[in-house]
Amino acid sequence: MTAEARAGRARTATAGGADELEALSGAVSECRRCPRLVAWRELVARERRAAFAQESYWGRPVPAFGDPRARVLIVGLAPAAHGANRTGRMFTGDRSGDFLYAALHRAGFANQPTALARGDGLRLRDLRITAAVRCAPPANKPTPQERERCLPWTVRELELLGEARVLLCLGGFAWDAALRLLVASGSPAQPLRPKPRFGHGVEAAAGRYTLLGCFHPSQQNTFTGKLTEPMIDAVLVRARELAGLRARSTGGGDGPA
Fold this sequence. Notes:
Elements: H1 3-28, H2 35-47, E1 65-66, E2 72-76, H3 84-87, H4 95-106, E3 127-131, H5 144-160, E4 166-170, H6 172-185, E5 203-206, E6 209-214, H7 219-224, H8 229-242
Parallel strand pairs: 2-3, 2-4, 4-6
Antiparallel strand pairs: 1-3, 5-6
Helix pairs in contact: 1-5, 4-8, 5-6
């Protein structure tokens, strides 16, 4: 097969994967598997925070966002009640997202440092963002059962992300969810023993993937200094290295909005 033919086949496969990821996102956004989460996300969308009283809330499960050719998959906890549950895009419209997307821009994964709303021009390159649970949970605390009901969505997503090599886990809940995700996806076939413990900057090899830990960019962590800009920058540099990506090239994101 010629180089041109191989390139054409790769482009066709990528386009097909992107279409399937888009269809998966549509299915995710209609999910009603968890009665407690359905009730909460819709209540928040009706009552709204005073600062956003004139806005229409998304109020549904939030699909993943980013490049269908991603080599790095960020696994977060769950949408924030007045952030992604309002805007309909992961880590968009709250302080955690402000911190995260600024860091992604510095690391060359995002074309701009801000994330305000869907359609704001934000693009990601080589990176995609998902979550252990796709609905906003009360008190930001999903249950293990809700995590398990959401797992099949992420299993299918990982299957479609054929170039993914690094799972960057934001916090211990996401770390545990990623370990379960890899076993459910068959890579590795058995749980890692001993079970890798979460920590900032901790790495764990798992089949074709590497898990990489990062403290969650919550206001509690960033305001207290538990997670600083240099700390998250270092983790993102390491994610690029593990994924086999070149050094950062700020401003070139080209994934879907």
